[in-house]
Amino acid sequence: MIEQEKNEVTENCGISRRGFLGLLGAGAATAAVVASTESDASMLGHKSDKKMGFQQSESQYEEALNNPPKIPNYDWNKHRWSYGVDVDRCIGCLRCMEACKAENSVQEDANHHRTWVERYVYLEGQDEAIVDSSADPKNIENVGSELHFRFDNRYEQEKVEKAFFVPKLCNQCDEPSCVQVCPTGATFKAMDGVVLIDTKYCFGCQYCVQACPYGVRSLNEQRGTAEKCNWCYHRITKGLNPACVEVCPTGSRVFGDLNDDNSPISQFIRNNKVTVLKSEMGNKPNLYYVGADKEVS
Amino acid sequence: MESVFEHVSSYVGYVYPNETEVPWTELIVIYPYITGLVAGAFVVSSLHHVFGIDRFKTISRFALLTALCFMFFAPVPLLFHLGQPTRAFEPIITPHWTSAMAAFGYVASFYVCLLLLEVWFAFREDIVRYSKSSKGFKQKIYQLLTLGSDDVSPKALEIDHKIARILAMVGIPGAMGLHGYVGFVFGSLKTREWWSSDLMPPIFLLSAVVSGVGLLIVLYIITSKHRKVTPSHEAMVGLKQVLWASLVIVLVFEGLELLEMVYKAREGIETVMALIRGPIWAGMTIQWGLSFFSLVVLSAMMIKNPTGKKFVGWLFACGLAMMIAVLAMRWNVVIGGQELSKTMKGLLTYHPLIVGRESLMTVLMLFIAPFVTLYFATQFLPPWDDSKSRAEGKHTSHH
Q1: How far apart (Å, rounded) are the C-alpha atoms in residues B164 and B178?
Q2: What is the C-alpha separation between B399 and B386, in angstroms, rounded?
Q3: Which of A84, A256, A295, B107 could be stapled to A263 by a disulfide with Cβ–Cβ 3.0 to 4.6 Å?
């Protein structure tokens, strides 16, 4: 795809000028990838004749790196962001994944995710859940695209005893393994609790990908640097919700500032018996779950 | 499923979606392997330099050159693996000290410097001699390498030996540290059940010695054949003993590690067992099969003390077998650890690429490079200390 077309596509998608993202390691893929995702054009309602890009163009990425926008009214010492997931509310519609991919220029395939949703199914008489995510090959085959997110209907003929969906994303741990193992210090914990990546320093060793207990990190092959969810840092620093929280139709995803007693997340933690995943790792996650089953890890 | 990006591994059960691209590939298999060969070769050279075990005198300098030539290439696989190789020096300039990896640049550079120094002291007498006996461009290089010091009086040589010994003494903890540290890079990762073991550093260390001694045995026998000399029986017996001893210890450690994992039987142990029976089955068979083969043969040779061609042949087989077994072990650890999903509910199967930046071809080239370098190094600085080399030495120094 030529540069002009690429710009046009991203303009159409309305995801241009998202400068700050670059600093945070926003992902993007090359034109080759954009071109290879035919027939996904209508996903976000764009008219881009088969060539639909979630991705920032290279020039946008450059600009984001070299001239990150200032956030004048934001003091990261005054916030303590936290996130909650109500498993019982999630219906597995996967709008959150779609929003995340588009908002954050995440690579357009089934192997790079900043957030995803897992489906746990107990069939009648079985003690263990069968787990899959939207990235499961069968689900992709069913939809026919790595960019349309939908669970298939594989249990239609089965007797299901119990089933639920579990959204996953970065836990922004208080003791993040990824920050501990990063040899360059490219990934760091901001004062407001979010773990960020400075893609100018990351050299792509993937030690952080190994170290994350929750599997939320991946490598952006095009940029040669690590990728992960940052709770839409470019949005939350402007007082907005992360994209996934914004689009969740059931209120399964909750976000807010722990410094504010009346924020949704403060109430969520106060009013529920919350749990975290893999507490035995000692990472002290900041992602709280309500209704997570024993099988969820 | 058509995968847009390179290299996606198939899986069974449930794995996190981001896990389908295995982060550390065959390049990270060859990296600890090459580092291990360095550590092993160095230990053998030190047995002579530090402990004065004379039976290793014949191969001590060759072992040193081997360690140096392999050490040159130890960091290269890492460079090929980086997503941003031009930033390779970032951790050296601005190290983030909580990272086990941050010290690598320092540890590796320190070790290269140490090896260079030790080689220089061990070969100084020869360098001075060649700087006088050779001609033309070659002479210029030798002269440069003398660093302006051509004093080869007994007193000066005694100082040389003393310094070389001290360097070797520093080098032993250096070599141990370098490889124990590689084990730590893996063993300290709590997220990977297959890696997260306190026994990982000693296992890496001892298997390093095993593979390094194996390499020396193989190289010594091949070069002896090439030079048409009989390998020193004394040296061969020494290598046999070191190989046997280190193999026994490493097998015990590896066995204990597996046993502990199975006995503790933490959540997901079924998946661990499935990993051994599944994706790394071939690797485990090669690793343990060849290890036991070598153990049996070496034990028999420890008892029967064979000599001559039979001894050379069997020892060669053991050396080669252990080189392959340790390579398989590196694969089983590095790739196997990543094939076991962090969910502990699924297994990936990694298939390496044949051609590409991160591929078997790159690995092959990176593995051949140290041998080629070593060949030229031995041409330039003949390390042999036997009757043939002495005869040749006399010939060349006769002026």
Answers
A1: 20
A2: 21
A3: A256
Q: Are A80 and A196 in contact (CB under 8 A)?
A: no
* Dihedral pair phi/psi, residue A49, rounded to 5°: 20, 75
- Residue to mutate among A38, A134, A210, with most B CBs inside 10 A, is A210
Tens of pLDDT along A126-171? Answer: 999 999 998 898 999 998 888 889 999 999 999 999 999 999 999 9
CB-based burial, B116-144: b 16+ in 10 Å, e otherwise: eebbbbbbbebbbbbbebeeeeeeeebbe
Domain A80-297 has CATH 1.10.3720.10: no
Phi then psi for B148, rounded to 5 degrees? 80, 5
In chain A, alpha helices (H): 3-13, 19-23, 31-36, 58-66, 95-104, 137-143, 177-181, 207-211, 233-236, 243-247, 264-271
Structure token digits, residue B7 = 């290299």
Q: Which two tokens stand for residue B267?
A: 């959540």
B216-269 pLDDT, tens per residue?
999 999 999 999 999 999 999 999 999 999 999 999 999 999 999 999 999 889
Domain spans in chain A, listed from the N-terminal domain onward: 3-66, 80-297
In tens, the pLDDT along A10-65 reads 333 333 333 333 334 333 333 333 333 444 433 443 333 333 445 566 777 778 77
DSSP string over B199-244: THHHHHHHHHHHHHHHHHHHHHHHHHHHHT-PPPHHHHHHHHHHHH
Question: What is the 8-class DSSP label of residue A240?
Answer: P
The amino acid at B153 = S
Q: Phi first, then psi: what are they for B348, rounded to 5°?
A: -100, 160
B 218-277 residues with CB below 8 A of A?
Answer: none
When CB atoms are compared, the residue of B6, B91, B342 closest to A221 is B6
Second-level CATH architecture of B13-385: Up-down Bundle (1.20)
* ipTM (interface predicted TM): 0.91
Q: Is A51 on the interface with B (CB under 8 A)?
A: no
